[in-house]
Amino acid sequence: MFKRIAILTLALGLLFTMPAMGEQAPEEIIEDYTYGGTFTIARTQAPEGMFNPLFAESVYDAEVWTQVFEGLTRTDPNFEPQPALATDWEVSDDYLEYTFYLDEEAEFHDGEPVTAHDVEYTYEVFLHPDYDGVRAGNFTPIEGGEEFQDGEADEVEGINVIDDHTIEITFDEIHAPFLVQGAPFGIVPEHILGEYEVAELSDLEFNYADPVGSGPFEFEEYADDEYTHLTANEDYRDGRPYVDDVIIEYVDDQAQIMMIERGEVDFAPEVDHEHFDRLSEMDHINLHQSTRNGFGYIGFNLEAESAVSETEVRQAIAYGINRQGFIDAVMEGLATYTNSPISQASWAYYDDLEQYHHDPEEAQATLEEAGWEMNEDGIYEKDGETLEFTITASADSEFIDQMMALVQDNLTDIGMDVEIERMEFATMTDQVSAGELDSWFMGWSFGADPDPYTTWHSDGDWNDTNFSDERADELIEDARNTLDQTTRREKYIEFQQIWNEEMPYIPMYADIYVHALNDRVRGYNPDPGVVDPLENDWHLLREVWIPERERE
Question: Is the pLDDT of residue 27 over 70?
């Protein structure tokens, strides 16, 4: 509210420089000056088209659903929990019971109230035996969650609706990440989805054509691989967004730059580094940098019927790829690389690990110590099998073209036979989940808490590499069950050491993102840190505005 008052005060000051505007009252003039217009975003990666928070997996889908749906909490740029649907909450002295108090004015976009029963329904779907999404691991620590998931109970004992606007969530053990890694997931409307069986939910038209949430924007339309259209929720309880419409256009690298240059775009996140100098010369563009809370990586299927299932082969690949050379030559040095599965921005990050600097001789020595011998064709082989595998990457990206060419050349030079396969992104993600690929290139974004359970625990819903280590599982579980950050960090350090030995991913780069913002835009964060200028999941999209005289 204070931010809105400040913005309106600024707008009032600007009125003194404006021509007379008829008989309008000052507050009407202010409203016309600040409210309205279309905010256009240009992205180079389209979403999968799954905008239901129960099932959405990619960050590009999250950019949509986080505007349409709300969780009990949200995270701020410092990764601390803030109120969302819950205006307040209490935690018991033993840290096992959370009591959330919902905003009594919260409504879904169809006018139905958001109640504690919707929260109960949402969490029970995540835990249902027929749920086929990847988020259950965030909720199984709830008391009785595993029994419900296994079909041994008819309800989740730890979910207790007190009244329409109060709900208690009880855990079997301390679950440190919940407020920032479980509670922010969007609450869905039971009155719409409750009429379907849980097994049917992932195929509903609701997911891609008519999602109904309670957030500041309403879903209007998604045209596959072309654009997403959102409209302001006029009845949003904290005040409607300033802009009337948000259009997210999905274009290639060159089209994005041309749109920025012509002033057709208000915000272009994560523009290609090679265009940095060109963007710097555009007078109407403000450039912002933020450190990526994630990385681009090459992942391996540790159960694949190929050489990548062998630890020493993955280590040799890490030594063989010139990651720093790629960062310097293609990314203008605007990135770093890491050798850990935990964000460099996290308090849990540990860097005293094997660095896997580019060292072709060490790569070959690692292979030979593991029994690989080079044949007359210059390719390593062992037990009659040549060292060959396929890396799959999404199509239609010049940046990925350059990276895959470097990777292939580097690995060929050390004696590996590597094929590069290009594929449409959604198809690739399906094949990764099905365990059909040897290796793949994708990006990963970290959550607010360093908890790696869903990706690196043997039972993690997102463990597409099939990484499994008994000690790693124990460390991940123990770290979840304590609130002492020093103890958690000790657990995560040992986990990172195990992971660094196995290298189920090769983190290729952690970008220093460059974001282009049209100078007509107001209300953004000028110092984004590890988030972009619109903050986590574009939280500030509700607060940005374009002065009336600068709208097209």
Answer: no
For the ranges 14-23, 188-197, 263-272, 370-379, the lowest mean pLDDT is seen at 14-23
Closest CA to 400 of 272, 254, 256: 272
> What is the spatial distance between Cα 522 and Cα 10, in angstroms, rounded to a whole number?
11
Contact between residue 291 and residue 513 where contact means Cβ atoms under 8 Å apart:
yes
- At 218, list the tokens: 């309403």
178 and 260: one domain?
A: no
Contact predicate 256/264, CB 8 Å: no
Q: Supply the CATH number for residue 93's domain.
A: 3.90.76.10
Could you tell me the two tokens for 7?
A: 């913005």
Structural domain of 243:
37-68+215-266+520-552
Give the single-character DSSP code of 279.
Answer: H
CA atoms within 13 A on the CB side of 465: 27
DSSP for 438-460? Answer: SEEEEEEE--SS---HHHHSTT-
Q: Please spell the DSSP secondary structure of 366-388, one letter per residue.
A: HHHHTT-EE-TTS-EEETTEE-E
My answer on whether 411 and 473 are in the same domain is yes
3-state per-residue secondary structure call for 462-524: CCCCCCCCHHHHHHHHHHHCCCCHHHHHHHHHHHHHHHHHHCCEEEEEEEEEEEEEECCCECC
Of all residues in the chain, the percent with pLDDT exceeding 70 is 93
C-beta of residue 551 within 8 angstroms of C-beta of residue 36: yes
50 and 181 both lie in a single domain: no
Which run of H or of E encompasses 169? strand 166-170
Per-residue model confidence (pLDDT) at position 275: 86
Residue of 315 and 528 predicted with greater confidence: 315
Based on the domain organization, do 313 and 187 belong to the same domain? no
pTM above 0.85, yes or no: no
Which is nearest to 505 in space by CA: 420, 458, 444?
A: 444
Total count of domains within the chain? 4
Tokens describing residue 425: 């992104």
Measured CA to CA, the distance from residue 167 to residue 163 in angstroms comes to 7
Q: At what angle do helices 323-330 and 398-413 cross, to 10 degrees?
A: 150
> Domain containing 236 — which CATH number?
3.40.190.10
287 found inside a domain: no
